[in-house]
Design goal:
A seven-stranded antiparallel sheet has the order 1-2-13-10-15-8-3, with helices on one face. Strands 9-14-11-12 form a four-stranded antiparallel sheet, with no helix packed on it. The longest helix has 14 residues, at 52-65. It contains two helices and 15 strands. The protein has helices at residues 52-65, 116-128; strands at 34-38, 41-44, 82-87, 90-94, 97-101, 103-104, 109-110, 138-144, 150-153, 165-171, 174-178, 188-192, 197-200, 209-211, 226-232. It is globular, with a radius of gyration of 16 Å. The chain binds succinic acid and fe (ii) ion.
């Protein structure tokens, strides 16, 4: 993930201005189980819903070892999304830049191992989206509280862009911002609901994407949070 750099001080929510002004969604909410986002990008509606309780329990175990924290961008801005990781390497950002690190800087120890439930889901969703044989080695766990957001970015710290991204939504709904290959491309707004999985790869691998500021809410399994699991092949 590459968070856009800023030259001067900005308030924490200043890049909200980069989002389209309306909260209206571009997707019909009654659609089928697949929403096509691109030639090689698809939203698998509800793909992870049945196993969501197990995934959420596993997030709790991961956070017990490597706690959620608000990382700082190279430009010095604290991210509104709280993050942790599991797997062989974790995505981190600090004043020195973005990287995958086998050691959690907050604990000085390796990240928690990737649970089987995670790796299996990532492989199944990737295969369902046309990317058979996906073996994830890094899972970024994002926690959104109301107001937390992720500005438009590309996931580009991974070694091999032939490998897809698999992104799982849990808990409170969010509005996904799905752009194009250039930051200035038109952005589509798509609802991401509990249990949804988005997979993108091939020519869509470097698509700009982000998450609109989370709305207040209460979810039976995650309370006042939304969680996102982003599976990558990082190394
Ligand atoms: C990300 O791009 O890392 C997260 C996307 C999401 O939270 O849905
Ligand atoms: Fe991303």
């Amino acid at each position: 993930m590459a968070i856009p750099e800023r030259s001067g001080p900005i308030p924490a929510d200043a890049n909200a201005t980069r989002d389209p002004p309306s909260l209206a969604l571009d997707e019909a909410q009654d659609g089928g189980s697949r929403v096509v986002l691109g030639a090689r990008a698809v939203l698998l509606r509800g793909f992870a819903r049945e196993r969501a309780p197990a995934l959420i329990a596993a997030i709790g175990a991961i956070a017990g070892v490597s706690p959620f924290r608000h990382m700082v961008t190279p430009g010095g801005w604290e991210m509104s999304v709280a993050m942790t990781n599991c797997g062989a390497a974790g995505w981190v950002t600090d004043r020195t830049g973005y990287r995958y690190d086998p050691i959690d800087p907050a604990t000085g120890r390796p990240w928690p191992a990737m649970p089987e439930t995670f790796a299996g889901l990532a492989a199944e969703a990737a295969a369902e989206a046309g990317f058979p044989g996906f073996r994830t080695d890094a899972c970024l766990v994002n926690r959104y509280a109301p107001g937390a957001r992720l500005s438009l970015h590309q996931d580009r710290n991974e070694r091999d862009f032939e490998q897809p991204i698999v992104s799982v939504s849990l808990g409170l709904p969010a509005i996904f911002l799905w752009g194009g290959r250039a930051r200035s491309d038109k952005v589509r707004r798509v609802a991401l609901l509990h249990g949804d999985v988005v997979v993108w790869g091939g020519p869509d691998r470097l698509t700009f994407h982000g998450v609109h500021a989370l709305a207040e809410g209460e979810h039976p399994l995650t309370g006042t949070f939304r969680f996102n699991l982003t599976f990558r092949r990082a190394l």
